[in-house]
Amino acid sequence: MPLLEPKPERLRPPAGGHPSYDRVPGRRASGTPEPLRGDLIALLGPDKVLHTISDLVRYASDASPYRFVPQVVVVAEDVDDISAVFSYARGKGRTVVFRAAGTSLNGQAQGEDILIDVRRHWTGIEVLGDGARARIRPGTTVLRANAVLARHGRLLGPDPASALACTLGGVVANNASGMTAGTTRNSYRTLASVTVVLPSGTIVDTADPDADTLLARAEPALCAGLLALKAEIEADPELVARIRAKYEIKNTSGYRLDAFLDGTTPAGILRGLMVGSEGTLGFLAETVFDTLPLDRYTSSALLFFPTLSAAAAAVPRFTEAGARAVELMDGNTLRASVRVPGVPADWAALPKETTALLVEFRAPDEAGREAYERAAARVLTELELVAPAASVTNAFTRDPSAIGGYWKARKAFVTAVGGSRPSGTTLITEDFAVPPARLAEACTALLELQSRHGFDAAVAGHAAHGNLHFLLAFDAAEPDDVARYAAFMDAFCRLTVERFDGSLKAEHATGRNMAPFLELEWGPRATELMWRIKGLIDPHGVLAPRVLLDRDPRAHLRGLKSIPRVEALADPCIECGFCEPTCPSGDLTTTPRQRIVLRREMLRQPPGSPVTTALLDAYGYDAVDTCAGDSTCRLDCPVGIDTGALMKDFRHRRHSAREEWLAERAARRFAAVERSARLAVAAADRIRARIGDRPLTALTGAARRAVRPDLVPEWLPRIPGAAARRLPATARADASAVYYPACVNRIFAGPAGHPGPSLPEAVVALAERAGRPVWIPPDVTGTCCAAIWHSKGYRRGAVVMAHRIVEAAWSWTAGGRLPLVVDASSCTLGLAHEVVPYLSPDHRTLHAGLTVVDSVVWAAEELLPRLTVLRTLGSAVLHPTCAMRHLGDEAELRRVAGACAREVVVPDDAGCCAFAGDRGMLHRELTESATAKEAAEVTARSFDAHLSANRMCEIGMDHATEGRGYRSALLALEWATRPASPDGPHRG
Question: Count of alpha carbons within 13 Å of 982, Cβ hemisphere only?
């Protein structure tokens, strides 16, 4: 064991409370039992089988109120893996459930036996023809697919609120629709074809002209059975009429029986049946969608009404006027959404009865938009609107930022409202539809029902389609609360079916919580047909038992998860998974949601639990060490949970008093530390030049094993040489800004082979060239943004450096009269925001008077308008840093790069590189995993320059792309505007 290895016990939760009813039993502490573990490793290889208790627990929770711990998790790479697991399960009498994003709300992505991860290796989109169709793999998010399609003026029909996280496989499996899809733009209507792996292992591509011939040869009984069911249904006019009527409104309850009416062949019927089948009939290996025009001309309004029924009554007027979307948000939803950044704070005081409609018109051209706006204006004259808050305008707007804010509030319904639920309560999301003409009546009935059962639920939904959502919070550990929920569900389902002939699930799919009520909605005849469909396609019952069909009338009460109270920073988490796509460690160890899920399981356990001990043993590396700490999870979390900050706190908890003292001492003597670091880099560069990288790699490897991998950096082959000892000479007189070269740019030089000036030299030259000279203070050595300390949880060191840099900056800038320009985006973020928690009240006052500006922003706004571009590169690829996402500076990076290159590309998979200062040197595997997809895009073609805005991120991307030569965009700008004859394009 390394000398300074932290003790897992320091993260053990404090004892208290009673063990939870749904805790993982102690006998499962060793993970997947034999022979299951050994069988699957022999079948698939060790890298594809996750079997520790930490693995199983982190996959046991999703966005639903249910929790089932699998026996094993398989990370499938291809259809051969899928077929192999199917064969094994059939032979051993086991069952299989698929999981992609885990954003489904009804437990569809949870299983009690073999769980297959079909996200990690299943991404990709191929645009077909002119974009009219797209071939999409099931692990691709809707947001990622639409980003590609937007370049062709197209988009997908389904547009669920979870688009940034949910995957196309899940969208099809649930027939998720969203804000505008209704019954005409959903997966069932826009899915051109699907490639499916049947439970037997047979692979069917429904687009293949020979699909039916091949299917008949491989599965003759299946083909005959599908055609027999088709004939039986079509021979019953009453049943046919019932099926057609059920799909006139949104409906995802049960199997799509209209597939037998719309499909003419077995392959065609299968295509329809797979939509909304929730992984119970086969694996969706690939989808081909018919795409839709991206109508870019929009006009939107958020209109406020005095009551829910008044808002509902206005919906038909807007749909008749041609609105693409009419979204409803009740008072509880509006008030809760103030947790979402950008939502007006005065919504918090809105009256409870207030309800808003988000109305949007979309047109292909300006004339179409103007026509819609005239129609909308006529509708507005007929409505009685209210303005209960100063921010309410009740007017249509074309402003993209305002429209984006409206949609952000609406899409955060589940997560924002759920995040404000009482601590320790479980969240249930219900989703139903009624004929749109009866929406107002349904709203009134729903409110009365909720009141009768003691629920004060939030209501929102796709009002144009008669589709409403509401949330219920209750304590699943309290039998009385569960009984109250059960009584409400019985009454709600009967109300929806018997009074409104509605759909118990409109777009969230049947799932575990509505399976017992399927027969209530469809009747015994249709429900029995669904059981026969399941038996025909999956005769061994291998796939997703009890997910869509369940004869147990209390099945929806089985597996309800407790929500133990965790650290306050993470306690609002509803495990929605919106944070996961942005997380750099997601494909290596754990995601933000999983870090919280694991913590909650520790708190479910009794004192001395072997499960807690096993989880803690893994948590140090899987959760704490491999968190990049970039906090981009906070940006995508609708309630702003910063799991990165929580992991930094856990790092602090693991430190001994001596470690904290040493870190503080390093901060106090940082000038010497900085000089030593630069000398060490210079010495290593000389050694590398003489004998190569191998001895340095061996030396640092030995030190890491002896001391601690999370303390000693690993030597990487593309670590740059040392920066110059002296910074450029500048004058304070007439300076327009104070230039602060970050410590990373005072220690490390630019990329090898770059013949131009250093970054500090380039910034000074650009400033002089633009007539906006800068001054570099002579005493910058020994100062830092404090990220070195707070990113590792060294609070005492962070306090020392935070105070030092604020005092210095206050002096340098003449009390804040000059801006402080920082040449590394992470340091800009650190100085502008991250130092604040470590400051005394007096120093916070000083800090508030500072203007901290990133050098790229300063160049875009202050220098570029005053510079003359004399030459340009052909192409440049950008790596926007995670700090720039926090600061909102990505547009300025594009602007600077656009001045230097005729083509500027941001990879579709650009994200955090996870180098995170030195974390990529402590855990190189983290950066390699985080950058794999972005690096694949970058290296697939050649670029004249590879540009970013942070030296350590540039080093990380160099490592990921095998030395493409990433450098600051300001170096490219200096070259592009240099008056003297340049040496030629610096192709990176």
Answer: 22
C-alpha distances (whole Å) from 955 to each of 117, 509, 781, 918, 919 are 32, 46, 22, 10, 12
Structure token pair of residue 769: 């060239």
CA gap 904, 897 in Å, rounded: 7
Per-residue model confidence as pLDDT tens digits over 106-143: 999 999 999 999 999 999 999 999 999 999 999 999 99
Q: pTM of the entire structure?
A: 0.95
The strand pairing partners of 877, in sequence order, are 905, 946
Residue 4: what pLDDT?
A: 63
In the three-class reduction of DSSP (H, G, I as helix; E, B as strand; rest coil), residue 668 is classed as: helix
Distance CA 263, CA 273 (A): 9
Distance, in Å, from the CA atom of 858 to the CA atom of 544, rounded to the nearest integer, reads 55
Say if CB 429 and CB 398 are below 8 A apart. no
Residue with tokens 């949601």: 593
Task: Give 419's contacts (C-beta < 8 A, 6+ positions apart).
Answer: 336, 339, 572, 573, 574, 638, 639, 641
| 434-487 tens-digit pLDDT | 999 999 899 889 989 999 999 887 889 999 999 999 888 999 999 999 999 999
Q: How confident is the model at residue 988 (pLDDT cuts 50, 70, 90)?
A: very low
Q: Quote the DSSP letter at residue 258.
A: T
Average pLDDT in the chain: 94
Whether the Cβ atoms of residue 964 and residue 988 lie closer than 8 Å to each other: yes
Share of the chain above pLDDT 70, in %: 99
> Which of 322, 317, 315, 319 minimizes the C-alpha distance to 355?
315
CA–CA separation, 328 vs 442, rounded Å? 13
Query: CA 156, CA 143: separation in Å to the nearest integer?
Result: 10
Reported as type and span, the H/E element at residue 813 is none
Residue 427's region, left for phi above 0, alpha for psi from -120 to 50, else beta, is: beta
| 972, 947 contact by CB (below 8 A) | yes
Residue 712, pLDDT > 80, answer yes
Residue 985 has pLDDT above 50, yes or no: no
For the chain, the distance separating the N- and C-terminal CA atoms, rounded to the nearest angstrom, is 42
How far CA 387 is from CA of 354, 394, 413, 583, in Å, comes to 10, 7, 21, 40
Which residues lie closer than 8 Å to 670 by C-beta, 6 or more apart? 782, 783, 784, 801
> 873-878 and 945-948: which strand pairing?
parallel
Angle at CA of residue 591, ends 586 and 595, nearest 5°: 150
563: closest CA among 66, 11, 4?
66
- Asked if 634 contacts 640 with a C-beta cutoff of 8 angstroms, the reply is yes
Helix or strand run (H / E) with residue 711 = none
CA distances from 508 to 177, 251, 303, 503 (A): 8, 9, 27, 11
Q: Quote the Cα angle for 5-6-11, to 5°.
A: 155
**Contact partners, residue 247, CB within 8 Å, separation at least 6:** 183, 256, 258
- Among residues 869, 207, 98, which one has the least CA distance to residue 544? 98
Q: Hey, is 895 helix, strand or coil?
A: helix
Residues in the chain: 988
pLDDT at 981 over 70: no
Q: In the Cβ-directed half-sphere of 611, how many Cα atoms lie within 13 Å?
A: 23
* DSSP one-letter string for 764-781: HHHHHHTT--EE--TT-T
Question: d(Cα 116, Cα 103) in Å, to the nearest integer?
Answer: 15
Determine the Cα–Cα distance for residues 652 and 660; give it in Å rounded to an integer. Answer: 8
Give residue-wise pLDDT tens across range 374-402.
999 999 999 999 999 999 999 999 999 99
E strands, 354-451, where? 355-363, 426-433
pLDDT tens-place string over residues 217-236: 999 999 999 999 999 999 99
Per DSSP, helices labelled H in 825-907 are 825-829, 841-848, 855-858, 882-887, 890-900
